[in-house]
Structure formats: structure tokens, C-alpha cells
Amino acid sequence: MTLKSLLQQTPLDAIPAELRTFYNQMLNMRPTYGLPDMKLEVKKDSRGLTVVANAHLGSLSDVLGRQVSVAPNVLSGQSMTDVAVLCLRELAADGFNDGDHERFWNEMDDLQRAKLLR
């Protein structure tokens, strides 16, 4: 099951209010299926916390087309709706906004100029 199909099966009322705008954006986005061998892995880490791996590799449209692999020990305590919300939280967390992107590339340009001037 891809992330897109998982989100399509998740009812809107199961999505926390702070994630609903992002959820709707993801539903309206078209998957690009980049990096086809990479999967979103939902698993327990060494501390017993449920984590989503490979969520920040590629564009959002690439991630939307990835298969979601859920470890059996995760499903024993959580539903697929919980997994969908967890994936949304991971994708929405610590993301760059337009201002962050602009600052990042301006700093990179400044570093490149400084390197060239030496």
C-alpha cells in the first residue's frame, strides 16, 4: 500500500485538527514514484518509540508514492489510521518553509562566493 492510498483510506475526522490542511494538500498531490525501491518504514526504535524512516528522502510527491512497510510489532498496538497520522506528523515536522529555503540557498551562495574569492 502506498502512502497516498493509506491517506485516502483514512477518514478526515481521524486526522488531528493541526494536520488537516497538510492532509488535504497531500490528498490533492499527485505521486511521482521517485526512488521506487525505497519504502517508508514504520517500526519501533531501540527505546520502543514508533518511528517513520525514509520520510525525508526525496520530494513530498516522491514520498507519497512510496510503499508503506509496517513492522508487525507496531500493528499490535496501533491501527492503520494511527500509522497514517504518524506518517503525516513526521512529514509535517521540521519541514522547510519558503523563507527557510531562501535563507539556506543564500547562505550556500555566500559560501561559494567566499570560496571563489580565496
Mean of all residue-level pLDDT scores: 84
**Main sheet record:** 3 strands, mixed
Q: What is the CA-atom radius of gyration, in angstroms? A: 17 Å
Enumerate the spans where pLDDT stays under 50 for 5 or more consecutive residues.
none
Total number of helices:
6
Q: How many strand segments?
A: 3
Element pattern in H and E: HHEEHEHHH
Helix/strand structural class = mainly alpha
Strand-residue proportion = 5-15%
Q: What overall form do the CA principal axes indicate?
A: globular
Q: Into which percent range does the helicity of residues fall?
A: 40-55%
Q: Strand sequence of the main sheet, in spatial order?
A: 2-1-3
Cα-to-Cα separation, first versus last residue: 52 Å
Write the layout of secondary structure elements.
Blueprint: H1 3-8, H2 20-28, E1 40-44, E2 50-53, H3 60-64, E3 68-70, H4 72-75, H5 80-92, H6 98-117
Parallel strand pairs: 1-3
Antiparallel strand pairs: 1-2
Describe the structure.
The protein is mostly helical and 118 residues long. 48% of the residues lie in helices and 10% in strands. The protein is built from 6 helices and 3 strands; from the N terminus they run ααββαβααα. The protein has helices at 3-8, 20-28, 60-64, 72-75, 80-92, 98-117, and strands at residues 40-44, 50-53, 68-70. Strands 2-1-3 form a 3-stranded mixed β-sheet. A hairpin with a 5-residue loop joins strand 1 and strand 2 (50-53). The longest helix is centred in the C-terminal third of the chain and has 20 residues, at 98-117. It starts with a helix and ends with a helix. The mean pLDDT is 84.
